[in-house]
Automatic annotation (TrEMBL):
GO terms for cellular component: cytoplasm. This is SHLB2 protein. Gene3D superfamilies: Arfaptin homology (AH) domain/BAR domain (1.20.1270.60). It comes from the Eukaryota. SMART domains: BAR. Residues 5-137 form the BAR domain.
Length: 137
Protein backbone atom coordinates (compact mmCIF):
# COMPACT_ATOMS: atom_id res chain seq x y z
CA UNK A 1 0.00 0.00 0.00
CA UNK A 2 2.82 2.37 0.90
CA UNK A 3 4.65 1.59 -2.36
CA UNK A 4 1.50 2.19 -4.44
CA UNK A 5 0.71 5.46 -2.69
CA UNK A 6 4.29 6.60 -3.18
CA UNK A 7 4.06 5.88 -6.91
CA UNK A 8 0.73 7.71 -7.21
CA UNK A 9 2.12 10.69 -5.30
CA UNK A 10 -0.32 10.31 -2.44
CA UNK A 11 2.30 9.52 0.17
CA UNK A 12 5.76 10.76 0.96
CA UNK A 13 8.55 8.54 -0.38
CA UNK A 14 10.19 6.43 2.27
CA UNK A 15 13.89 7.25 2.43
CA UNK A 16 16.17 4.27 2.81
CA UNK A 17 19.52 4.51 4.55
CA UNK A 18 22.72 4.44 2.47
CA UNK A 19 23.81 1.01 3.74
CA UNK A 20 20.50 -0.55 2.65
CA UNK A 21 20.68 1.19 -0.75
CA UNK A 22 24.21 -0.21 -1.16
CA UNK A 23 22.97 -3.72 -0.31
CA UNK A 24 20.16 -3.40 -2.86
CA UNK A 25 22.59 -2.31 -5.57
CA UNK A 26 24.97 -5.19 -4.76
CA UNK A 27 22.09 -7.70 -4.77
CA UNK A 28 20.88 -6.49 -8.18
CA UNK A 29 24.42 -6.63 -9.55
CA UNK A 30 24.86 -10.17 -8.19
CA UNK A 31 21.58 -11.30 -9.75
CA UNK A 32 22.39 -9.79 -13.16
CA UNK A 33 25.87 -11.30 -13.32
CA UNK A 34 24.65 -14.67 -12.09
CA UNK A 35 22.02 -14.76 -14.86
CA UNK A 36 24.62 -13.85 -17.50
CA UNK A 37 27.12 -16.44 -16.25
CA UNK A 38 24.40 -19.11 -16.10
CA UNK A 39 23.23 -18.42 -19.66
CA UNK A 40 26.73 -18.31 -21.12
CA UNK A 41 27.75 -21.52 -19.33
CA UNK A 42 24.70 -23.25 -20.78
CA UNK A 43 25.74 -22.03 -24.24
CA UNK A 44 29.27 -23.32 -23.68
CA UNK A 45 28.07 -26.74 -22.53
CA UNK A 46 25.40 -27.08 -25.24
CA UNK A 47 26.05 -24.78 -28.22
CA UNK A 48 23.00 -26.06 -30.15
CA UNK A 49 20.05 -23.76 -29.26
CA UNK A 50 17.38 -26.31 -30.20
CA UNK A 51 19.02 -28.93 -27.99
CA UNK A 52 19.07 -26.40 -25.11
CA UNK A 53 15.35 -25.74 -25.59
CA UNK A 54 14.68 -29.49 -25.62
CA UNK A 55 16.69 -29.96 -22.40
CA UNK A 56 14.83 -27.03 -20.81
CA UNK A 57 11.47 -28.60 -21.67
CA UNK A 58 12.51 -31.97 -20.26
CA UNK A 59 13.67 -30.23 -17.08
CA UNK A 60 10.40 -28.31 -16.69
CA UNK A 61 8.36 -31.48 -17.28
CA UNK A 62 10.45 -33.28 -14.61
CA UNK A 63 11.61 -35.89 -17.09
CA UNK A 64 15.07 -37.32 -17.62
CA UNK A 65 16.96 -35.69 -20.48
CA UNK A 66 17.90 -38.36 -23.02
CA UNK A 67 21.62 -39.01 -23.23
CA UNK A 68 23.27 -37.58 -26.33
CA UNK A 69 26.37 -38.82 -28.07
CA UNK A 70 29.04 -36.12 -28.03
CA UNK A 71 30.69 -35.03 -31.26
CA UNK A 72 33.92 -36.70 -30.14
CA UNK A 73 32.16 -40.00 -29.52
CA UNK A 74 30.44 -39.80 -32.90
CA UNK A 75 33.77 -39.11 -34.63
CA UNK A 76 35.30 -42.07 -32.78
CA UNK A 77 32.47 -44.30 -33.98
CA UNK A 78 33.04 -43.20 -37.61
CA UNK A 79 36.78 -43.77 -37.30
CA UNK A 80 36.31 -47.24 -35.88
CA UNK A 81 33.82 -48.17 -38.61
CA UNK A 82 36.21 -46.80 -41.27
CA UNK A 83 39.09 -48.78 -39.74
CA UNK A 84 37.03 -51.96 -39.96
CA UNK A 85 36.22 -51.20 -43.61
CA UNK A 86 39.86 -50.57 -44.51
CA UNK A 87 41.00 -53.50 -42.45
CA UNK A 88 42.46 -53.31 -38.96
CA UNK A 89 45.72 -54.77 -40.25
CA UNK A 90 46.41 -51.94 -42.70
CA UNK A 91 48.47 -48.94 -41.59
CA UNK A 92 45.52 -46.60 -42.17
CA UNK A 93 43.16 -48.91 -40.30
CA UNK A 94 45.55 -49.21 -37.33
CA UNK A 95 45.89 -45.44 -37.19
CA UNK A 96 42.13 -44.94 -37.34
CA UNK A 97 41.64 -47.43 -34.51
CA UNK A 98 44.20 -45.66 -32.28
CA UNK A 99 42.88 -42.18 -33.03
CA UNK A 100 39.28 -43.39 -32.74
CA UNK A 101 39.93 -44.85 -29.29
CA UNK A 102 41.54 -41.61 -28.15
CA UNK A 103 38.64 -39.65 -29.57
CA UNK A 104 36.19 -41.92 -27.73
CA UNK A 105 37.97 -41.21 -24.44
CA UNK A 106 37.93 -37.47 -25.17
CA UNK A 107 34.20 -37.67 -25.90
CA UNK A 108 33.57 -39.54 -22.66
CA UNK A 109 35.59 -36.93 -20.75
CA UNK A 110 33.54 -34.18 -22.40
CA UNK A 111 30.31 -35.93 -21.40
CA UNK A 112 31.55 -36.21 -17.79
CA UNK A 113 32.59 -32.55 -17.79
CA UNK A 114 29.14 -31.48 -18.99
CA UNK A 115 27.45 -33.64 -16.35
CA UNK A 116 29.73 -32.43 -13.57
CA UNK A 117 29.44 -28.76 -14.57
CA UNK A 118 25.67 -29.04 -14.66
CA UNK A 119 25.45 -30.59 -11.21
CA UNK A 120 28.22 -28.72 -9.40
CA UNK A 121 28.09 -25.31 -11.09
CA UNK A 122 24.77 -24.64 -12.83
CA UNK A 123 22.53 -26.15 -10.15
CA UNK A 124 23.79 -23.82 -7.37
CA UNK A 125 23.39 -20.82 -9.68
CA UNK A 126 19.81 -21.85 -10.50
CA UNK A 127 19.10 -22.46 -6.82
CA UNK A 128 20.30 -18.95 -6.02
CA UNK A 129 18.15 -17.37 -8.73
CA UNK A 130 15.04 -19.43 -8.00
CA UNK A 131 15.31 -19.57 -4.20
CA UNK A 132 17.67 -17.15 -2.50
CA UNK A 133 17.01 -14.29 -4.91
CA UNK A 134 13.26 -14.49 -4.32
CA UNK A 135 13.90 -14.28 -0.59
CA UNK A 136 16.19 -11.30 -1.07
CA UNK A 137 13.77 -9.45 -3.33
Amino acid sequence: LQFTEEKLGQAEKTELDAHFENLLARADCTKNWTEKILRQTEVLLQPNPSARVEEFLYEKLDRKVPSRVTNGELLAQYMTEAANDFGPGTPYGKTLIKVGETQRRLGAAEREFIRSASINFLTPLRNFLEGDWRTIS
